[in-house]
Input
Amino acid sequence: MTALSLLAWTCFLAFVQMLVAASGATLQVGLPTLAGNRDGLPEITGWAGRARRAHANMLESLVLFAVLVLVAQVAGRANEMTALGAQLFFWGRLAYAVVYLVGIPWVRTGVWAVSLVGLILIFLQLV
Output
């Protein structure tokens, strides 16, 4: 799969994470509370809180991934290594989302590191 394809799939993954986080929050505090202005919103805990944090972390990482993939494409530097980096990023982020939702701390850090290696591999093709 190309890095651009994986960028599209990563956006889809972020969308699914958003739906999971919103569903968890709705189950905890109810739709009327979430549809309001959210003043005094209680803390979302448990799996729903982990889903929200995993989604926020995905959005932070997605910006970096998108910039690197798009710069590699525009600069004509997309190659097998950028594709490998994108694969590591995508599969690492997918594993991260699942592992964080389930609540396995050290494994979560390990799969996050895999996605970080993916970003580094893409970056190294640009410098």
Notes: The chain has a mean pLDDT of 95.
